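Posting this for the archive.
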Amino acid sequence: MGDWCLFQLQRGHRFSTDDLVTAWRAWRARPDARRLLDLGSGIGSVGLTTLHRVSAGREGEVHLTTIEAQAVSVGLARRTVRHNGLSERVRVLHGDIRDPAVLPPEEGFDLITGSPPYFPEGTALLSPHPQKAGARVELRGSVFDYCAAARPHLAPGGRLVYVMAAADPRTEAAPLAHGLAVVERLDVVFRAGRDPLVCVLVCARDDEPDLPERVTEELVVRGADGEWTAPYLAFRDLFQFRTPKA
């Protein structure tokens, strides 16, 4: 990630294209953000990547708070923060996003990100590795819980950006159920000609004056020939990772 280093387990949960696309759209949604919050942050890949882009050229002005329930992921995120000298700019909280006591309700954020698990419990194979299982299956809440946790902390004019399964109706139902409006949707197609597997939604508070007209876009990762597309390569070049094993 530029000159930053991200720690992750060799056989545990690892960062993915989903994380990079979420950070990219978050940066585009609020490039001027100063206070960032990442919900269910895991090893910190979404939040830290967003911070890296948003804070470019104004490093001392932008701060990130992350909330994660799994102790192993919290430990890795804190190790990353220390290694990269980010302790003054990043606060890593250990807790469940469904617990309102984790973060005072008066704290507001310009940009909130999240990568909820995609599958309800009992509908997908549960990995024997607990860190991977919790990242994929809804063991600690769904996209509805992410939206519920985000809404009280979203400052006026702020944006919530999250990635979710493209075909799941809950992806768009969740923000509407919690006082949020979808202003942008990016469908991610991993191979040309196929249906999108995931999408990234950009949401605003539904009481925001003059809500922008909704925009829908598509990013194709690989063409029909199996090669990475030019738009995907252009976005990927923004995020260069070194990932030591832990």
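The chain has a mean pLDDT of 88. The helical segments are 17-29, 45-54, 71-83, 130-136, 143-150, 170-177, 230-236.
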